[in-house]
């Protein structure tokens, strides 16, 4: 290679011209740019991203083509199929085997035999030499048709392989697809087989349609942000978790993209970190998922379920990205457009198929007609005296001329040559009637194909309908579609550490174990603290945090909590007046110090309480004997003070110095009962006016829940409560209101009626017999319900007229465990609930119409109340602090 410092002179110029051409310098940067683009293009087009035409990546297409090559109706060893595929695929056997296992696990195109792994547990398939496969009936039906397949040379030029397979089904959307290329990726989620066919039919009919993912692992999915499978969309998937008993949870379905092993690992990791608390976990998964989570006694199953969603793989999110290859270029497209294009492509393939059939039928009709003319008119005798081949052709052509006017195309030399190949035996046994029947049958087939071509859309709809009928059994939707809210981690996290306070020095934290204990908390909680100088700060839990000297109150802070009301009396400055105020703290900036006084130097808090339910106590104010002050003592009721913002100045207590303030009378809540709604879409309670109003609830009020299994229970209304899908009744519980039920006793095979009230509000009880054939027919919580019995017709007798039943008169109120009275001895066809008898229920005692605060946080539990009390001073029984 020539060096850069070589010089050209007149002496060596002539020699240079006679030398061979010199090598040129090629810079590495240019080579890198060119080669990298070639490599990236190859990975995108030939490995990672599926084609929109047939939904296959190249390796998948070559596997299916190889299986068709080897197909004889019997199973083939996967190792044999992989070896055959290597004739078309320029990569190793491991990648081909893995791709084939993925196709087989989707249970659509490949009929598998042997251990093909488990998508639920994550177990791998057996070695390729041990497992077998063949093309499924569905695969044979919709994937292959050599007559309409376009071919290309394989990578080594020895064989032909399909450019695209003529897939007549939205296969890519049914199977899903995922791949990572150079600077590009794709993630197309699987959809339901039956729903895709229905959507294709709707598209052909010109109707609108919507398709949403359906995962082979089942589970629950929230597709409200699916965004048609385009970039920026998101699908939230959850495990299906139910309560086996008060100390055991069951996971029966897992989210897509996880396995039982990875899910269990995430649960154990969350337990080790203290986010959740479990006793042990068992994996009983076989053909179906069954993971048992055993809880310590006293732990809320509902909150644990939410904690599993918040801190483990029981809830994950999937970000779809619709990217396919079209005309050797990446195309970003939504699933709706994918289905439209696939359906339109299917119509064109069906058209090509029909056109080929039409050509074949017309060719058969043409030759059958020629054959009949040739034999029926004995034209074969005209060639007996011909000695040359040209003479034979001419003689036959001349003999056919008078009889071929009705033919649909001209007679060619090839047609005549084919006539000469007819054997004498066939001529001698020729049956004119059978020949005409064959021609008539071909004409019917030609007419049918032409009709299909003229009504191509109807033909395509019939094609999809047939696919649904033949292959749709057992392919119903597995994943339950539901809208669910994000779990607030702060409400469900286990309180895994203890909070301490050094009031004098002004420190709070989890490491101050020698100082005063405040409460249990979690490591993601925020802590609110108030100091004697009227300051407030909210800070995240840490080992040790300084908030200000002279701490008077510390507790776990709940964001948007409008029910916790703080009552404060403070002195404004060293010689200023004193003020009284009530306020809630709903939102703050973390680690920012807020001044609750008027901001003057030397201000201090004289009296402070925190009230979880807006309690308003009565206090006694004592003044110092100064000058001519006559009234030195009077009472103030906090209920007379309006609740305002924390920055408000407050109401004047006195311009004179306050000696002390004492608690005279404990307060009652000044908040109206909480209005609670039930949102059926997410199956949760809320206070945001979403869904149906359940009622107004005071502190002791509960909700009555009755399920299809004949189970009745009352619960405290909390946003973390999970409701079963078989729930029949969910309403505010009125303790004296009877429950009426008609049920079928499986053991005695009779209908029974019973009326009862809930006597033990803390226990879940079954009020029908536990025989496997027993079932609840009707349940009503009306005061005077009515039912109607429809009897079966007995042989030889007229049907007995329907009988109305007043359940209140039919049976008196008994215990929940009582069997009840037999409804009738006659055979019952059906029982209908009727309109109840009007009845005015006793009115509830109205709440005092005081300051109304709408609650946003319903998760104030007894534990929180106890912690609040524990954090206040002991002088006033945990209710107030006096300064």
TrEMBL record:
SMART domains: TOP4c. Residues 425-459 form a coiled coil. The active site is at residue 130. It catalyses: ATP-dependent breakage, passage and rejoining of double-stranded DNA. Residues 49-497 form the Topo IIA-type catalytic domain. InterPro entries: Topo_IIA-like_dom_sf, Topo_IIA_A/C_ab, Topo_IIA_A_a_sf, Topo_IIA_dom_A, Type_II_DNA_Topoisomerases. Residues 1-21, 840-883 are annotated as: Disordered. Residues 1-14, 841-858 have a biased composition (Acidic residues). The keyword Isomerase applies. The keyword Cytoplasm does not apply. Pfam families: DNA_topoisoIV. Keywords: Coiled coil, DNA-binding, Isomerase, Topoisomerase. Belongs to the type II topoisomerase GyrA/ParC subunit family. NCBIfam families: PRK09631.1, PRK12758.1. This is DNA gyrase/topoisomerase IV subunit A. It comes from Bizionia gelidisalsuginis.
């Amino acid at each position: 290679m020539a060096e850069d410092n070589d010089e050209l002179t007149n002496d060596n110029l002539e020699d240079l011209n006679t030398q061979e051409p010199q090598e040129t310098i090629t810079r590495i940067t240019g080579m890198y740019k060119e080669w990298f683009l070639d490599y990236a293009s190859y990975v995108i087009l030939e490995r990672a991203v599926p084609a929109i035409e047939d939904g296959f990546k190249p390796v998948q297409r070559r596997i299916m083509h190889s299986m068709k090559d080897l197909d004889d109706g019997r199973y083939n060893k996967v190792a044999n199929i992989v070896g055959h595929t290597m004739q078309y695929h320029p990569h190793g056997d491991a990648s081909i085997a893995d791709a084939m296992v993925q196709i087989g696990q989707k249970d659509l195109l490949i009929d598998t035999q042997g251990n093909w792994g488990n998508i639920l547990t994550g177990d791998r398939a057996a070695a390729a030499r041990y497992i077998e496969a063949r093309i499924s009936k569905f695969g044979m039906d919709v994937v292959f048709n050599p007559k309409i397949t376009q071919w290309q040379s394989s990578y080594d030029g020895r064989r032909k392989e399909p450019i695209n397979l003529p897939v007549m089904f939205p296969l890519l959307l049914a199977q899903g697809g995922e791949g990572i290329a150079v600077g590009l990726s794709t993630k197309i989620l699987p959809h339901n087989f039956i729903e895709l066919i229905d959507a294709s039919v709707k598209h052909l009919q010109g109707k609108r349609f919507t398709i949403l993912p359906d995962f082979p692992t089942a589970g629950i999915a929230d597709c409200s942000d699916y965004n048609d499978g385009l970039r920026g969309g998101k699908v939230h998937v959850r495990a299906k978790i139910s309560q086996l008993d008060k100390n055991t949870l069951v996971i029966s379905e897992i989210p897509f993209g996880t396995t039982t092993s990875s899910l269990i690992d995430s649960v154990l990791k969350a337990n080790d970190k203290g986010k959740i608390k479990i006793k042990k976990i068992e994996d009983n998964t076989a053909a179906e998922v069954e993971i048992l989570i055993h809880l310590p006694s006293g732990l809320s199953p509902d909150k644990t379920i939410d904690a599993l969603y918040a801190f483990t793989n029981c809830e994950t999110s999937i970000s779809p990205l619709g990217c396919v290859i079209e005309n050797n270029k990446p195309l970003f497209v939504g699933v709706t457009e994918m289905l439209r294009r696939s359906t339109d492509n299917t119509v064109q393939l069906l058209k090509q198929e029909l056109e080929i059939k039409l050509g074949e039928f017309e060719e058969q009709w043409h030759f059958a007609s020629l054959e009949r003319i040739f034999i029926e008119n004995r034209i074969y005798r005209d060639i007996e005296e011909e000695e040359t081949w040209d003479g034979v052709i001419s003689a036959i052509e001349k003999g056919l001329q008078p009889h071929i006017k009705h033919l649909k195309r001209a007679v060619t030399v090839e047609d005549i040559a084919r006539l000469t190949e007819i054997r004498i035996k066939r001529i001698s046994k020729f049956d004119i009637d059978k020949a005409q029947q064959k021609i008539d049958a071909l004409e019917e087939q030609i007419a049918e194909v032409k009709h299909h071509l003229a009504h191509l859309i109807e033909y395509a709809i019939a094609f999809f309908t047939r696919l649904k009928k033949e292959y749709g059994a057992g392919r119903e939707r597995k994943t339950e579609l539901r809208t669910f809210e994000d779990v607030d981690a702060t409400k469900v996290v286990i309180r895994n550490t203890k909070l301490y306070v050094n009031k004098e020095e002004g420190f709070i934290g989890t490491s101050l174990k020698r100082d005063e204990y405040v409460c249990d908390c979690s490591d993601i909680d925020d802590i609110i603290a108030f100091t004697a100088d009227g300051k407030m700060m909210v800070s995240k839990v840490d080992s040790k945090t300084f908030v200000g000297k002279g701490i008077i109150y510390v507790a776990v802070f709940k964001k948007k909590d409008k029910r916790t009301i703080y009552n404060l009396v403070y002195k404004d400055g060293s010689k200023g007046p004193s003020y009284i105020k009530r306020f809630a703290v709903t939102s703050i900036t973390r680690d920012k110090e807020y001044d609750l006084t008027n901001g003057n130097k030397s201000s201090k808090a004289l009296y402070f309480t925190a009230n979880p339910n807006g309690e308003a106590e009565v206090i006694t104010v004592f003044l110092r004997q100064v000058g001519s002050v006559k009234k030195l003592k009077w009472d103030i009721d906090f209920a007379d003070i309006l609740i305002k913002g924390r920055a408000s100045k407050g109401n004047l207590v006195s311009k004179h110095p306050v000696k002390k303030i004492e608690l005279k009378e404990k307060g009652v809540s000044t908040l109206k009962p909480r209005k609670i709604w039930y949102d059926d879409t997410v199956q949760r309670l809320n206070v945001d006016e979403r869904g149906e109003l359940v009622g107004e609830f005071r502190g002791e009020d509960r909700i009555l829940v009755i399920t299809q299994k004949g189970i009745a229970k009352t619960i405290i209304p909390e946003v973390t409560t999970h409701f079963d899908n078989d729930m029949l009744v969910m309403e505010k519980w009125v303790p004296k209101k009877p429950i009426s039920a008609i049920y079928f006793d499986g053991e005695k095979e009779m209908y029974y009626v019973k009326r009862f009230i809930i006597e033990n509000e803390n226990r879940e009880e079954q009020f029908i017999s536990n025989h496997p054939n027993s079932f609840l027919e009707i349940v009503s919580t009306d005061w005077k319900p009515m039912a109607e019995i429809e009897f079966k017709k007995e042989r030889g007798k007229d049907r007995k007229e329907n009988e109305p039943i007043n359940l209140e008169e039919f049976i008196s109120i008994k215990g929940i465990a009582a069997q009840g009275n037999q409804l009738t001895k006659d055979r019952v066809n059906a029982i209908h609930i009727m309109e109840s008898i009007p009845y005015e229920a006793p009115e509830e005692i109205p709440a005092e119409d005081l300051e109304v605060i709408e609650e946003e946080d319903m998760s104030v539990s007894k534990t929180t109340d106890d912690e609040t009390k524990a954090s206040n001073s002991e002088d006033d029984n945990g209710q107030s602090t006096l300064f």
